[in-house]
Specification:
The protein is mainly alpha-helical and 459 residues long. The protein contains 19 helices and six strands. The protein folds into three domains: 92 residues, Fumarase C, Chain B, domain 1 (Orthogonal Bundle); 249 residues, Fumarase/aspartase (Central domain) (Fumarase C, Chain A, domain 2); 59 residues, Ribonucleotide Reductase Protein R1, domain 1 (Orthogonal Bundle).
Length: 459
């Protein structure tokens, strides 16, 4: 077992149970690439500033690159007894190049080193999540383009409300996902600040060049307070929050798919490759993917709550509590990526059943508002038109008719203002096509929504 770096201060070995409890390599090993990249930049700066010999800097960099190559080609395995990924790489470097490896940690602490690694790791993961969001948005746009005139009921309170198109419905999720994308990119902006150089908490007496490291690693700026640089994880919390909102949107979409593929709706049918069966009921075709996404949304909310609770009582500066940031944020990242990677092809391969959507729209009196508007356009006050139409709906229910099949004589019995043209005014096609206000369900409006989304994605 490797000697602890604080061994000089202690007179006895740390209990094995403490070592196991204290170790983080089981989950922080995934940051090996970013740890090595950060160390290469740090060693470069140390050599350029004359803090260590230039020849030592070059040996360190060469050794680090060798370690990276060996990890990635499977020739070097992580030591599970190492305390963390930082100490594993430093110990391996020293084993390979001797005492020069011990100089790498000059002018830095693990406190600012881990703060650097996790920022670098998460900014790359944000890019990955953003790409998946964009792919999902593109899938939604494709679905919308194929269903511009597919009429369906729009709902409030899960009651049929007004006629819309399936394209209009799914494009609502495209707008939500655009905001999710923007939140992720905004989070990355605030995350992209270099903490290295903060030291343990009070920077360093060495004449380091933080801006040089900042430039080498592609950060936008350096942190302005060394205590803040090592002691906050608000960037993890902000990312977990953005992911939680994204998961909430996926969960809502999943809930609708669960309903839509049920026999009670049968608006869509999932591809066999993205559904499961029952162990006992041979007729079943279950939407397990969407149900799991709903469940995993709660898991991600838990990750966010873990981070918030972990940080709420920690005084400045670094505390060991903050080691728990990585399992929580890594889990949130892994979960949302897994959900997106599965949801996208499921949505892309599902079959839309337009006739069932149209039939549901026809049976729900969802053109009642348009019937009232017909009277308003003829000069009646809206509240009077509302009452007349409500009475007509009640009459239709009593006679097992719809507004489309109710005879004109019944209309005129309620109000002489009604004429034959009422049937054109309340047809579902008219109801949808005439909703031309910006953002509405008319095909020309949905086309504008699609163009807006595609323009956003191109930037």
């Amino acid at each position: 077992m490797a000697e602890k770096m604080w061994a000089g201060r202690f007179s006895k070995e740390v209990d094995d149970r403490v070592n196991d409890f204290n170790s983080s390599i089981s989950f922080d090993a995934r940051m090996y690439k970013h740890d090595i990249m950060g160390s290469v930049a740090h060693a470069t700066m140390l050599g350029e500033c004359g803090i260590i010999e230039l020849s030592e800097s070059e040996r360190i960099i060469e050794g680090l690159k060798g370690i990276l190559a060996d990890i990635e080609n499977g020739e070097l395995m992580f030591d599970p007894t190492a305390e963390d990924v930082h100490m594993f790489i430093e110990a391996e470097l020293t084993k390979r190049i001797g005492d020069a490896g011990k100089r790498l940690h000059t002018a830095r602490s693990r406190n600012d080193q881990v703060a650097l690694d996790i920022r670098m790791y998460l900014r790359d993961e944000i890019d990955n999540i953003v790409k998946l969001c964009e792919s999902l948005i593109e899938t939604i746009v494709k679905l919308a383009k194929d269903n511009m005139t597919t009429i369906m009921p729009g709902y409030t309170h899960l009651q049929r409300a007004q006629p819309i198109t399936f394209a209009h419905h799914v494009m609502a999720y495209a707008q939500m996902l655009l905001r999710d994308r923007e939140r992720l990119l905004d989070t990355k902006k605030r995350m992209n600040v270099l903490p290295l150089g903060s030291g343990a908490l009070a920077s360093t007496t060495y004449p380091i060049n933080r801006q040089r490291v900042c430039d080498l690693l592609g950060f936008d700026e350096i942190s302005q307070n060394s205590l803040d640089g090592v002691s906050d994880r608000d960037f993890c919390i902000e990312l977990a929050n953005a992911i939680s909102i994204l998961m909430m949107h996926l969960s809502r979409f999943s809930e609708e798919i669960v309903m839509w593929c049920s026999w009670e709706f049968k608006f869509i049918e999932l591809d066999d490759a993205f559904a499961t069966g029952s162990s006992i009921m041979p007729q079943k075709k279950n939407p397990d993917i969407t149900e799991l996404i709903r469940g995993k949304t709660g898991r991600v909310y838990g990750d966010l709550n873990t981070l918030l609770t972990m940080m709420k009582g920690t005084p400045l500066a670094y505390n060991k509590d903050m080691q728990e940031d990585k399992p929580a944020i890594f889990d949130a990242v892994d979960t949302v990526k897994l959900c997106l990677k599965t949801f996208i092809p499921m949505l892309d391969t599902m079959k839309v059943i337009p006739e069932n959507m149209r039939n549901a729209a026809a049976r729900g009196f969802i053109n009642a508002t348009d019937c009232a508007d017909y009277l308003v356009k003829k000069g009646l006050p809206f509240r009077d038109a509302y009452k007349i139409t409500g009475t007509l709906v009640a009459k239709c229910i009593e006679k097992n008719l719809t507004l489309e099949t109710l005879p004109l004589s019944e209309y005129k019995a309620m109000c002489e203002t009604f004429e034959e043209d009422v049937f054109e005014a309340i047809s579902l096609e008219t109801c949808v096509m005439q909703r031309k206000a910006a953002g509405g369900p008319a095909p020309e409006c949905v086309k504008a929504q699609i163009e807006y989304v595609e323009n956003k994605l191109s930037k």
